[in-house]
């Protein structure tokens, strides 16, 4: 353990730790009730087709909406739930909600665009997860293409076990998106062995657009993905120059604040319906 020479530092360090610890314990103890009270809500961030600039689909992003109206962002509770195992239940909850909404849209005669759902590494490793997810898809009469699964590149890091699980998912019919590509644990090995359909370029890469070396990295990464029969989506796009560059590089889809933020389902629905009506 770390020893500080000043008593004061020790006290500050300890109380900071326990504050964090208390907060984590509270969120952990609150989980069942929060699920029961439907405090976890699924927001939708539209993805845009680069050529048409129309909505091509969305990503489902969970938020924790407390009864007092405050929102807790996933960055605060996902790492905790990944640590204590609750993520398995939360991921499945979000997936079910998205599948149900897709079914509802179908019944309403609305266009059903693909909505991708995040899956943590811990969830992927959970026993029977592929069968359970497939069952949810069948129960809601969803085409597999309408609910792609996002696996973060770190979660997709090469291992025999992960390779087996991802292949199983693809064989069942799931579409896989490799999330956060280029964010730190970039592994060409994962491109070699894992059956992904879409490569999501992380914001960290997009932020280098305009820097000549960064431009080249993106250009060649897109070419590499296309050569491997994957589509490419750029994440965290905030600027017009980035959109223009990505279009020139033949990136397929864009997701970012430049076009739209994550928002409640009703807002996403209204955006899609508006586009559909303009089409007629
Ligand atoms: P992610 O899967 O990489 O999702 C993209 C994140 O980038 C989202 O943050 C989104 O709001 C943000 N983002 C999108 N466009 C922009 C942009 O132009 N600029 C900036 N600065 N940010 C942008 P969010 O919603 O806070 O989610 C953070 C992470 O939490 C997600 O990263 C994902 O790893 C995780 N997460 C969210 N929902 C779930 C879930 O249901 N299950 C699991 N396992 N993880 C989830
Ligand atoms: Mg994601
Ligand atoms: Mg991610
Ligand atoms: Mg991402």
From TrEMBL:
Please indicate if the UniProt record lists Ribonucleoprotein as a keyword.
Answer: no
The EAL domain sits at 24-276
Q: Keywords of this protein's UniProt record, alphabetized?
A: Phosphoprotein
Briefly state the protein's biological role. Answer: May play the central regulatory role in sporulation. It may be an element of the effector pathway responsible for the activation of sporulation genes in response to nutritional stress. Spo0A may act in concert with spo0H (a sigma factor) to control the expression of some genes that are critical to the sporulation process.
Protein name per its UniProtKB record: Stage 0 sporulation protein A homolog
Residues shown, of full length: 503 to 782 of 782
